[in-house]
Write a structure and sequence with these properties.
By secondary structure, this protein is of the alpha+beta class. The protein has 2 domains: about 110 residues, no CATH class; about 250 residues, 3-Layer(aba) Sandwich (Beta-lactamase), CATH 3.40.710. The chain is built from 11 helices and 11 strands. The strands form 3 sheets. Strands 1, 2, 3, 4, 9, 10 and 11 form a 7-stranded antiparallel sheet that branches. The protein has a two-stranded antiparallel sheet with strand order 5-6. A hairpin with a 2-residue loop joins strand 7 and strand 8. The longest helix is centred in the first third of the chain and has 21 residues. The radius of gyration is 20 Å and the shape is globular.
Length: about 400
């Protein structure tokens, strides 16, 4: 089946009631009768509309409030090439930049809670080589908030000769702006944070995140390096030469760093992502296990506006009202979330402890899907559910 034919089959043919395999994957079992079923059908309809508008093959969405799951839906396909596979609840997704808040920022804040790091301290206290070329004033918080003055990315060629040389090249960068004065979303800044975690924790970033975030959160199938036995459940990304990658990070810089980096590389299921949302909205404790302090969670959820007029951000999340992942119904200016290049997103409302997670692989199979309509449709469906409660 060609890529074009596969899309036509998935986007149109499979939506018919008699299509096999079915694009509609069902909904969670109704726990409160008609109300639960109605929510699930509304979420299904939103996902279907978003998938068609953005030409995305398939997606999952989960809406929750506190410990309650309000609705879940799986629509369409996680893979079109080399064979058609339905999107299922246990699918493992490349979380792309959701790695930043879920893995890296949470791990950094756990180290702040442990008094191993300080938010207002210069990064060069622990990474003295980083201070070169005017970076001595950059603090941990500057990196977390994307106000370090570092570029969004440095050349991919800087990563061609291994992690040590890549780090040397990052240390050789000069900031474009004074720290704390201008927001510039920076993958480089989070790569530095990943290096910082490794330096102070004494091991790999993967091990630190697993011990300090994933295990205490009960995120059982989340991790940077997907075990071979789980790769068949991974949603593939772009089809290039050979089979589409499964369980291998799409981001080329993270891939050059061995699949583990502060800005990208995490893989997870939708239930893993929902557990992280629940933990953060509950003040850092989940199922009786303390992951972060309430103060750390507050910093990760409270937006701050810079004097330069840029959109508000928290320590780890975006609070820009124009973000499609917010939709039109989550509170503007106080709710917050994040997106990822592969087609993933989450959005949270601290006041009500509500959240919506959307996971898709918009890059599969040809790298041309658009996740914005999907994110907006799911967020608005969630907002209507929450308003009706």
């Amino acid at each position: 089946m060609s890529v074009g034919a596969a899309w036509l089959w998935c986007g149109c043919e499979a939506s018919r009631p008699d299509a096999t395999p079915r694009a509609r994957q069902g909904v969670i079992a109704a726990r409160d009768g008609e109300t639960q079923a109605r929510r699930a059908l509304e979420l299904e309809a939103a996902l279907q509309a978003g998938l068609e508008a953005g030409r995305v093959a398939g997606a999952l969405a989960l809406v929750g409030r506190g410990d309650e799951e309000l609705a879940f839906s799986a629509m369409g396909m996680r893979a079109l090439e080399p064979r058609v596979e339905a999107a299922t609840r246990d699918t493992i997704w490349d979380m792309a930049s959701l790695t930043k808040p879920i893995a890296t920022a949470t791990c950094v804040m756990a180290l702040v809670d442990a008094r191993i790091l300080e938010l207002d301290a210069p990064v060069a206290r622990w990474l003295p080589e980083f201070a070169a070329h005017g970076k001595e004033a950059i603090t941990v918080e500057h990196l977390l908030r994307h106000v370090s003055g570092l570029p969004a990315a440095n050349p991919l060629a800087d990563y061609a000769h291994g992690p040590d040389e890549a780090w040397r090249r990052i240390c050789g960068l000069a900031p474009a702006d004074s720290a704390g004065t201008k927001r510039n979303y920076s993958d480089v800044g989070y790569i530095v944070l990943g290096k910082l975690v490794e330096r102070v924790d004494g091991g790999s970033l993967e091990a630190a995140v697993r011990r300090r975030v994933l295990e205490p959160c009960g995120m059982r199938e989340a991790g940077f390096l997907v075990e071979p036995s789980l790769r068949e459940r991974c949603a593939p990304t772009e089809v290039g030469t050979g089979a589409p990658p499964r369980g291998v990070v799409h981001d080329p810089r993270a891939r050059a760093l061995g699949g583990v980096a502060g800005h990208a590389g995490l893989h997870a299921t939708i239930d893993d992502a929902a557990r992280w949302c629940r933990m953060l909205l509950a003040g850092g404790e989940l199922d009786g296990v303390r992951v972060l302090s309430t103060e750390a969670c507050r910093s990760m959820l409270e937006p701050r506006v810079l004097a330069d007029g840029s959109a508000p951000r928290t320590i780890a999340l975006d609070a820009d009202p124009a973000n499609a992942a917010r939709g039109d119904l989550f509170p503007a200016g106080s709710s917050c979330g994040h997106t990822g290049f592969t087609g993933v997103s989450l959005w949270l409302d601290p006041a009500t402890r509500a959240f919506v997670v959307v996971l898709s692989s918009r890059l599969h199979p040809a790298g041309q899907g658009d996740a914005k309509p999907l994110r907006r449709a799911a967020a608005d469906a969630a907002g209507r559910m929450l308003a009706a409660r």
